[in-house]
Hints:
By secondary structure, this protein is α+β, with helices and mostly antiparallel strands. The chain has two helices and six strands.
Amino acid sequence: MSNDKHEATKKADIEMVTLTVTVTANKVNENGTFSGITVKEVKGVKGLKAVSHPRSGGAIYFQIAKEDVDKGAIKLLTSGEASAQKKTKPKLF
């Protein structure tokens, strides 16, 4: 076993973004759950990638390159802006 301590990935609050993902599914079970999901297209943010692994249970993972973040593809918020955004967040359900 390694004694090296793993440093947690740093997270930053961002301005809300809208993502449009086009997927295909090739199976559905009797309770209506889709599987065999393949990501076809992602729109909304420059440099964004989406992946759905066959064993992920339908989860879709999003990633943006650090270079695109540095170029301003998404807006990083300061702590004051982030807390204000969380207060005005619309209720979805």
